[in-house]
């Protein structure tokens, strides 16, 4: 099977984020593969190993994304496509249109992506992509198997397990619990430097900049206010209840 993985580079989830003029300051920030996309890459590699297929990674971003791409190649992916044209750096609408244009030029059986990106958490791009490609999709899967040209996916459904069958080609989004992503081996790291990485522009994949311009404008980005220290109420139960109600009404103003 030929598998395409849609990957995004995000800042390290443990990084300290600061803002400059209302924008995230990238200086000194460690960039990594979006953690949910790591599950997608691992699942793609498992499919490749079971079916003697191929894995292609597709991503959008500036020059720094090549580091994440090389990590995916070191894990075992075969090749990659990077759309490093600033015209592609829009919103979820833009990303889905760009990814669809790239993927339409490829032969594939399965598309995998992370359930969401840890930076914006929108969970939109993959399902938009499935709509554009006119393929079925199953989100937040925890297990994926195949029976010929049919995929059987499992996902959590409010404490139960939902089983979904879809015909291939199809798109799936991965979440924690699907697998345990591997670490790149030393041999894999050496091989990654020789694997093909194609750089493309928006015009090169047949898109007009005005047709994929972002539809959403971010009006404000801010860091949540620090929480104050907790307070332990003393006294008997009726007294503590009265004090709690007073605090909620007069100080916190939530009731």
TrEMBL record:
UniProt xrefs under Pfam families: ETF
Domain Electron transfer flavoprotein alpha/beta-subunit N-terminal: 21-209
GO CC field: cytosol
N-terminal signal peptide: none
Keyword set, alphabetical order: Electron transport, Transport
Gene Ontology terms for molecular function: electron transfer activity
Assembly and interaction partners: Heterodimer of an alpha and a beta subunit.
Family: Belongs to the ETF beta-subunit/FixA family.
Record-given protein name: Electron transfer flavoprotein subunit beta
Biological source species: Ferroacidibacillus organovorans
């Amino acid at each position: 099977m030929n598998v395409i993985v849609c990957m995004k580079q995000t800042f390290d989830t443990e990084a300290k984020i600061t803002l400059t003029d209302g924008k995230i300051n990238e200086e000194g920030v460690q960039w990594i593969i979006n953690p949910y996309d790591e599950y997608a890459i691992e699942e793609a590699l498992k499919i490749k190993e079971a079916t003697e297929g191929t894995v292609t990674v597709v991503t959008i971003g500036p020059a720094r994304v090549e580091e994440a791409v090389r990590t995916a190649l070191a894990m075992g992916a075969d090749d990659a496509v990077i759309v490093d044209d600033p015209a592609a750096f829009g919103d979820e609408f833009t990303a889905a249109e760009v990814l669809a244009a790239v993927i339409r030029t490829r032969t594939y059986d399965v598309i995998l992506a992370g359930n969401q990106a840890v930076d914006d958490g929108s969970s939109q791009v993959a399902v938009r992509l499935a709509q554009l490609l006119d393929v079925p999709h199953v989100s937040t899967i925890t297990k994926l198997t195949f029976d010929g040209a049919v995929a059987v996916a499992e996902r959590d459904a409010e404490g139960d397990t939902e089983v979904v069958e879809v015909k291939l080609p199809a798109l799936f989004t991965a979440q924690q619990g699907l697998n345990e992503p591997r670490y790149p081996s030393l041999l894999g790291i050496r091989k990654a430097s020789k694997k093909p990485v194609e750089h493309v522009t928006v015009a090169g994949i047949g898109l007009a900049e005005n047709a994929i311009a972002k539809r959403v404008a971010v009006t404000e980005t801010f860091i949540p206010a620090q929480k104050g220290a907790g307070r332990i109420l003393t006294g008997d139960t009726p007294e503590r209840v009265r004090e709690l109600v007073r605090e909620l009404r007069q100080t916190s103003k939530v009731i």
